Amino acid sequence: MAKAKLKIESLPINSILKRRTHSIHPWEVQHHPDHSEIEAYIEITGEWEIIAVIKSINHVAIADFLVALANEHNQKR
């Protein structure tokens, strides 16, 4: 089985308000029996939206790791 590469790019953020929004609305994860859904607050729509669905044997661990990584990154901005 080939390993999937995960590429994460950091986009420049120009205002303090946008930085605060990430910490006010950290990513969340919803676990289901056969998959996990990662949700993020989308500023343009003003809604929480599913941005990724993880379907794997260890979907809980993968989703929790990605959400923790994103939230930690957003706190440092």
Key features of this structure:
77 residues; 2 helices; alpha+beta; 3-stranded antiparallel beta sheet; single chain; flat
Show the helix and strand layout:
Elements: H1 16-24, E1 28-31, E2 36-42, E3 47-54, H2 59-75
Antiparallel strand pairs: 1-2, 2-3
Overview of this protein structure:
Helices cover 34% and strands 25% of the residues. The protein starts with 15 loop residues before the first helix and ends with a helix. Strands 1-2-3 form a three-stranded antiparallel β-sheet, covered by helices on one side. Mean pLDDT is 78; it is low at 13-21. It is of the alpha+beta class and 77 residues long. It is flat and about 30 Å long.
> What are the low-pLDDT stretches, counting only 5+ consecutive residues below 50?
13-21
* Number of discrete helical segments: 2
- What structural class do helix, strand and pairing data support? alpha+beta
Instruction: Give the mean pLDDT.
Output: 78
Biggest β-sheet strands, sense, barrel: 3 strands, antiparallel
The neighbouring-strand order within the major sheet is 1-2-3
Distance between the termini: 36 Å
Shape: flat
Q: Into which percentage range does the β-strand content fall?
A: 15-25%
Total number of beta strands: 3
Q: Sketch the topology as an H/E string, one letter per element.
A: HEEEH
Give the C-alpha Rg: 14 Å
